[in-house]
Structures are given as structure tokens and as C-alpha cells.
Specification:
single chain, 313 residues, mainly alpha, 3-stranded parallel β-sheet, 13 helices, globular
């Protein structure tokens, strides 16, 4: 689906960002192709990275499906593409991994009962290496029911901001030319898996559309996303900002822009946090590097993490 993704990045998202700015909304687009290195793929980390990105992008999810089921990792039943969709939208089971911000906000929510909070604490454990909460093995059925009900109540798991776009068979044939094997599954079992995944999406009553050319696809995505974003912006409480609030908003937009494709550098971030958390002098931290090496992006991600730590205590 390279043509669709490239069209989104080059044509659709720039236009959508301009529209969003009129509503004081910052659009941060994330393509799951970004940030997965060859080494990550070889060490089986690709899926974890993609699922984390999906969590960080909630509540919005945009899926594009053609006529290939995708790569199925060793030891897995479903392709990476299918697992991304199951994790992001089609929650037939409870979330296996959850970002710290998501789970801790729910633990602090006043609407949760003591039973629900106790269940989350009991069933999820913080993994320091992966920096996220992971579901424990052999969760009891009754606990799974509680977890599912909790996550379904929160907006981050609602389905009204998830949209799917199915490429028509005619368009795939047109793009494929003589290389149909690159665009269509060659055995019946995998073809059935593709059809089954699309049927699950339709049966879940998720918004889904078929398109017959790339330009129509782009316009469809633009109109669909903008309609939902505009509605959300209108429903958001208005807030008068003084000059200091306006300045803070600009800094937030700058951080969002610089970190939208930020990946890796965990060792540097940990060293920066460690330096700032110590009770010693000197207290000045200087980041140096060649032009274009990513100093601003590194500082933006560090600031996001530091602010999150302060807010969550």
C-alpha cells in the first residue's frame, strides 16, 4: 500500500494540518513503516514497536487494506497487519500491552470501582525494559471480563474514530500489472484470511469505504478525518488563553511536530533523566551535536516524558 501511504504524507496530511491549525489542533501523523529498523525486525521487535505507536495515537486509527494478508511472524496465528487492527480496534480480547499513561490515568479515575482498580493492578505489571505495562499470563476469565469492560468504557478504545479504506480489486490489478503475486494472495487460505478480516471490520460496524483510484482515496480520507476532527474540536470546551498560555501552546505544537517521527535513543533519554533527577551540582545540562542530527527532537521527547512524570507523580 505504498502509493496510498505516500499520497497521504505528501498531499492529504499537509492539507489536513492546515485545516487543523484553524481549530488550534495539532495533527501528528504516524506511519507504522517509520521507526522499525531491519535489526528490530530481525529480533522480533517490529510488532511491539507498532503496537506502542498505535497506543500513542489513540483515539484515532486509520487502516488501509488491499488483497494481501501480510507477514505472519513465527509462532503467531495472525499477520502483523491483522494484529495491529485487533489491538487498535477489534478488541476481541483484553489489551496485552498498555502504555503507562493510559493505565495510570484509569487507575486514578474516580469512576472506577475498587474491584476494577484492584483487577488492573493485579493483572498488569510494569516492564522496565519495554517501558509499558504487560498483561500477566493466565489471567482468570472473570478478570478478563472486568478488564475488557474497563477499557471499552474509555474514549481511547472507542471505535467511532477508527476508519478503514479497502482498495478495489480493479485498482490492485491496475497497479500490479504483470506482478499480481505482489498484490494478491496466491493460496485460498490466505485469501480467506483477508476476506475474513474485512468482514470482521464490517460486522463491527466500523466506518469502511472502498476506493477505485488514489485521488479518490485521498479525498475520501481528507473529508472523513476532517469531519470527525472538526466535530471533536467543536465539542471541546473553549478556553481563553493569555499570552503565557498562547506561548505554552506554541511550545506544545513544536514538541508534537518534532517528536512525530521520533524513535529510539532510549539510552540518551535515560541518561538525561538520570542527570536531572540527581541532587548534585552543576545543574546545567547541555546537548550538543552536528546540525540536523536531531537535538530538537531529542529535547522535545525528553520534555514530554519529564512533564508526564511530573503530572503522574
Amino acid at each position: 500500500m505504498h502509493r496510498e501511504r505516500d499520497h497521504l504524507v505528501r498531499v492529504v496530511f499537509p492539507e489536513l494540518k492546515e485545516r487543523c491549525r484553524t481549530k488550534h489542533v495539532q495533527l501528528v501523523d504516524v506511519d507504522l513503516r517509520w521507526g522499525v529498523t531491519e535489526a528490530d525486525a530481525e529480533h522480533g521487535k517490529a510488532l511491539d514497536i507498532c503496537l506502542d505507536e498505535i497506543d500513542s495515537c489513540r483515539p484515532y486509527f486509520l487502516g488501509i487494506l488491499g488483497h494481501r494478508y501480510g507477514f505472519v511472524p513465527e509462532g503467531h496465528r495472525h499477520s502483523i497487519t491483522a494484529q495491529e487492527i485487533y489491538h487498535g480496534v477489534l478488541h476481541g480480547s483484553v489489551p496485552k500491552q498498555v502504555l503507562r499513561k493510559i493505565l495510570e490515568e484509569q487507575l486514578e479515575a474516580q469512576t472506577l470501582s475498587s474491584e476494577q482498580k484492584g483487577c488492573l493492578v493485579r493483572c498488569y505489571r510494569w516492564d522496565a525494559d519495554k517501558r509499558k505495562y504487560l498483561l500477566q499470563e493466565d489471567v482468570a476469565p472473570e478478570d478478563a471480563d472486568i478488564i475488557r469492560s474497563v477499557f471499552e468504557r474509555y474514549s481511547i478504545y472507542q471505535k467511532d474514530r477508527s476508519f478503514f479504506f479497502f482498495r478495489s480489486e480493479a485498482l490492485s490489478l491496475q497497479i500490479a500489472g504483470t506482478k499480481t503475486g505482489d498484490f494478491f494472495e496466491q493460496n485460498r487460505e490466505d485469501q480467506d484470511k483477508v476476506d475474513s478480516l474485512k468482514k470482521e471490520i464490517a460486522d463491527a460496524e466500523l466506518p469502511h469505504f472502498e476506493y477505485v483510484d488514489i485521488e479518490a482515496f485521498g479525498q475520501l480520507v481528507l473529508n472523513t478525518l476532517w469531519k470527525r476532527i472538526e466535530l471533536a474540536a467543536e465539542q471541546a470546551p473553549s478556553e481563553e488563553r493569555d499570552w503565557l498560555g498562547q506561548e505554552a501552546e506554541l511550545h506544545e505544537l513544536f514538541m508534537a511536530d518534532r517528536t512525530r517521527r521520533f524513535v529510539g535513543r532510549r539510552d540518551l533519554l535515560d541518561r538525561m533523566h538520570g542527570y536531572c533527577n540527581r541532587d548534585e551540582n552543576p545543574s546545567l545540562l547541555v546537548i550538543t551535536g552536528k546540525p540536523g542530527c536531531g537535538k530538537s527532537a531529542l529535547m522535545a521527547r525528553f520534555t514530554e516524558e519529564a512533564l508526564r512524570t511530573i503530572r503522574t507523580g
